[in-house]
Amino acid sequence: MSAFSGKSVVITGAAGGIGLCLAQWFGARGAHIVGLDRSVTAGAAMSALEDAEIAARFIRLDIGDAEAVEAAFAEIEAVDVLVNNAGYSNHHVLRLTTPASWAEEINGNLNGAFFCAHAAAARMREQGGGAIVNIASVNGQSALGDPAYSAAKAGMIAMTRTLAQELGQYGIRANCVMPGTVRTPLWRERAQKDPDVLRTLERWYPLGRIVEPEEVASVVGFLASDAASAVSGAVIPVDCGLSAGNIVMTRELTLEEL
Ligand SMILES: NC(=O)c1ccc[n+]([C@@H]2O[C@H](COP(=O)([O-])OP(=O)(O)OC[C@H]3O[C@@H](n4cnc5c(N)ncnc54)[C@H](O)[C@@H]3O)[C@@H](O)[C@H]2O)c1
């Protein structure tokens, strides 16, 4: 029997690069997928899952709309796993960030993840347990640009720990992953336009490369699975070693081949 056979896995942002990969990963292991996404590309993602004979459906909504999230979770049959994956950044620097764009990004990234966790936790309590996995970012831990997005991701890490503490008594685990740069279609497009973009980035990663979407999915899958039954409140970098330290500075300080 597959690891997630008969389980209902709700994935926000399931029409995007990492989200679709997550849906394929869980779907290939027997899960029924419910994708929550505001994008019109949800149709194409649904077709890709159908082609792979994965049981899935999509609900089109903005997770930053609390009422829409409540209504969506009320019509989902069961919620065994929630992956809070939807996320985006509007402005890469503080100079271009306005009070309105800050509030909008915090709402879409952090408040939305809370709305989904809140609704999912109620369902999981009724069912006697479940697992929540939040997709934060290395931006939640270090300043790497995208100020509102980074603040939202830092909030997501803090929220994960609170969820783990308060929901543990109901058999609900909550964990978080922090990806570094992931080779999603967006990055592939950027690299096609400018091949140096990835070469420049890869210097910062001890493994000498960026992360593949499947490598995020396998860690999320582990955290959602019974193999991680004693893991709750963990924050795991999936970043090819980026957050181990500043390798570019280390090279300069040691003045030696590493
Ligand atoms: N790609 C990377 O390098 C990288 C690195 C670190 C963290 N992450 C995180 O991984 C997650 C997925 O990123 P991705 O690269 O696949 O991005 P993506 O843009 O390819 O996909 C994101 C998906 O989320 C949906 N979405 C965004 N905001 C939404 C909202 N408010 N309501 C409903 N749907 C919404 C979008 O429509 C899209 O389909 C994000 O949380 C992102 O912050 C990505």
Automatic annotation (TrEMBL):
Residues 7-190 form the Ketoreductase domain. Belongs to the short-chain dehydrogenases/reductases (SDR) family. This is SDR family oxidoreductase. InterPro entries: KR_dom, NAD(P)-bd_dom_sf, Sc_DH/Rdtase_CS, SDR, SDR_fam. Pfam families: adh_short_C2. It comes from Devosia honganensis. It comes from the Bacteria.
